[in-house]
Write a structure and sequence with these properties.
single chain, alpha+beta, Phosphorylase Kinase, domain 1, Aminoglycoside 3'-phosphotransferase, Chain: A, domain 2, 2 domains, six-stranded antiparallel sheet, three-stranded antiparallel sheet, globular
C-alpha cells in the first residue's frame, strides 16, 4: 500500500499524536499529490503529501488559515485540520509538505446522480464559504480581478502561437481532429473574448480567498446535502466568480438552464455576483482548458497515470461545450 513512501518523521510527528493508522493509498486522477486514508479513534483521516514546491509553505499556511476560519464559522463541509506534535498545521520533510485532515463523508456523485436539489446545495455551500471569507476579511478587498489579468495573458500568448501551431502539421497526430477543432475555436473566439476580458478588467470587484479548482470531483454529497469540499491546493486571493464559473461548468457543462438555476441559488446568498462575469470566465476557461490539453498531450506528450481514453474524453467534452 505504498506505506514506504511515508517518512518516519511523518509517522512520529503527524500520525502518532492522533492515533492515525494508514489503511490505503487513495489518491488518483491527474494530481501529483499522494493521499492515504487512515483510521483513528476520532474517525477516518486523510494524510496528504503535496507535490514538491506546490503549494509553497507560506501559501499552504494561508490556505490552512482560510480553512480554519470557515470551520470556526460552522461550515462543517470544510475538512478539519489536525496539528502536528509541535502545533503546526503541516510538516515539511525533505522539501515536501504533509498535512492530516478529516476524511470527508459522502461521495462526489453529481455527474452520476444529478439533481436540482444537489445543484442548489453545491452552489449555496460555495456561496456560504465565499460569504464567510469575505465577511472575515480573508484577503478581502476591491480591485481588478487577478483571474481576468491571468487569463488575458494566457489567451494573448495562445493567440500569438496560433500561426505556428497551424503550420506545424500537428493536426495529423493521433489527436488530429481534436487539434484542428481546438485551433479553429482559438482563431474564431479569441478576438471577442479578449475584448470582453478587457471590459471586465476595467471594473473593480470584491476579491477574497477563493478555491479556484472547485469541480465535480471535489464536492461530496450525502443524498442531496453537501458534506465535503476538498482539495484547496489552488486556493488564493481571487474574485468569487472564478469559483462559480468553474463549478457550474463542471456540474452542468451542457445544460444552460440548469446553470441558470445554480447561479440563482448562489445569488440567494451572495446577490452582488455579476452573472455576466461568470459567463465570460466560463467561456474563456473552456477555451484555455482545450488549449492546455493540446499543449500537454500533443506538444509536450506528457504522460498521466490514467487511461488515455479518459484524457481524450476530457478534451472532447471541452470542444463539445464550445460547439
Amino acid at each position: 500500500m505504498n506505506h514506504h513512501l511515508i517518512p518516519q518523521t511523518v509517522q512520529q510527528e503527524l500520525l502518532l499524536p492522533h492515533g492515525a493508522v494508514v489503511k490505503e493509498l487513495a489518491s488518483g486522477g491527474l494530481s501529483a499529490a499522494h493521499i492515504w486514508r487512515c483510521d483513528s479513534p476520532h474517525g477516518p483521516l486523510a494524510l496528504r503529501a503535496w507535490p514538491p514546491q506546490h503549494p509553497p509553505a507560506e501559501q499552504l499556511l494561508a490556505i490552512h488559515l482560510a480553512m480554519r476560519t470557515a470551520r470556526s464559522q460552522g461550515l462543517q463541509f470544510i475538512p478539519q485540520l489536525c496539528n502536528t506534535r509541535q502545533g503546526g498545521s503541516s510538516l515539511a520533510v525533505d522539501g515536501q509538505l504533509w498535512e492530516l485532515t478529516q476524511w470527508m463523508p459522502g461521495v462526489a456523485d453529481y455527474l452520476i446522480r444529478p439533481s436540482l436539489a444537489k445543484l442548489q446545495a453545491a452552489l449555496q455551500a460555495l456561496a456560504e464559504l465565499h460569504q464567510t471569507w469575505q465577511t472575515h476579511a480573508v484577503g478581502s478587498a476591491s480591485r481588478s480581478s487577478p483571474t481576468v489579468a491571468q487569463r488575458q495573458q494566457r489567451l494573448q500568448w495562445a493567440w500569438s502561437q496560433l500561426s505556428n501551431w497551424a503550420r506545424s502539421g500537428l493536426g495529423s497526430s493521433a489527436y488530429g481532429a481534436l487539434v484542428s477543432s481546438t485551433l479553429r475555436h482559438l482563431a474564431a473566439q479569441t478576438p471577442q473574448l479578449l475584448q470582453r476580458l478587457e471590459r471586465l478588467e476595467a471594473v473593480p470587484v470584491a476579491v477574497h480567498f477563493a478555491l479556484r479548482d472547485i469541480w465535480s470531483d471535489h464536492v461530496f454529497f450525502s443524498d442531496d446535502r453537501v458534506t465535503g469540499i476538498i482539495d484547496f491546493g489552488a486556493a488564493r486571493i481571487d474574485e468569487p466568480a472564478t469559483d462559480v464559473a468553474r463549478l457550474l461548468g463542471s456540474l452542468e457543462p451542457f445544460d444552460a438552464q440548469r446553470r441558470e438555476y445554480g447561479l440563482a441559488a448562489y445569488r440567494e446568498i451572495q446577490p452582488t455576483l455579476d452573472p455576466q462575469r461568470v459567463q465570460v470566465l466560463d467561456e474563456v476557461a473552456t477555451l484555455l482548458a482545450a488549449v492546455q490539453w493540446f499543449q500537454w498531450l500533443v506538444l509536450e506528450q506528457r504522460e498521466f497515470k490514467v487511461p488515455a481514453a479518459r484524457l481524450r474524453r476530457r478534451w472532447e467534452e471541452l470542444l463539445m461545450r464550445m460547439e
